[in-house]
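Entries read chain and fold; for instance:
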Amino acid sequence: MSSRGLPAPTTLAHLVTDEPTARAIADGMSELFEPEEIATAAFEIASLEAGLRGASTAPVKTAPAKTAPVKTAPAKQGREGAMGTLHPDETGPWRLELHFAFEPDEDDIRAMVAGFSSEETAEKLVFEPIAAKDWVASALEGLKPVTAGRFVVHGAHDRGAVRIGQIGIEIEAALAFGTGHHGTTRGCLEHITALLKRRLPQRIVDIGTGTGVLAIGLAKALNQPVLGGEIDPDSVAIARENARLNGLGDRLKVHRAAGLQHPALRRSNHYDLILANILARPLRGISRQVALAAGPGCELILSGLLPGDVAGVLSAYRQQGFALVAKRQIEDWVSLTLKRGGQGPRPR
């Protein structure tokens, strides 16, 4: 339970439609309102049911569309869309959800939705009040702890699931994605486990740290400081709270930053381990930034990739002097470990 308390009562508008319509409405509505006024979600119904069977109908991985795309494990191989998001099935049923932080005028909202779809679609919108309830906490109660390598990601109700020799990562049931159930997170934790058998890195940064799962795991495993950067202010607050819950004190410091663009994170030829569990396009975009910050022999753990993304991401980082060490695939998500040899070439 968050120290910030339950969220305020809200209004939910939802409908079932096809994927292009759901995404068009979600994207359009997010442009008309500020992030603190509305959170939008568009997801394939089959995927949600497979991942959260028995949970509430409210989506667990909901984030304002202006801040971070929602990572939902696909039910089957799909295709990549804008910003690396996955489009599993264009013809299957999709659910659109609009979460308002205020009581909206239904006629006004229907008119806006019709502008991004049709009047017939807008008429299908169902409005309902949502009580002051922590939906994610409720959903997590039905999710089992996740074991990945040496690590066990769990909620407060499953602290007893961590066995001797395992490293527990307790994640608060808060409104941000990153519970460890996603294939990208599990893949990264398995890469970390393999890396720690070979070496003990000392200068570590986690780019796009989210709820802090990876950074918390490393800080606990190594008993040393880890830095994190995250562009979304809500996730920064949640990661800091999760660090507190895990008893890390000053061993995890999370800063609001895009990539490494914060004075506390921006280092030259410094880090010996850099993690980035984001998406393919931003991973390619920060390749030079990462290379400038990487020290000799630095290793990278990269994730958030579909199989079709791997070649492009590898090409971007090979140009910066990194070579592939290991590749893992969980569900439809791929994660990589890369390493710089010697001093490496000058970043291009």
Summary: The longest strand covers residues 294-305. The CA atoms of residues 233 and 256 lie 6 Å apart.
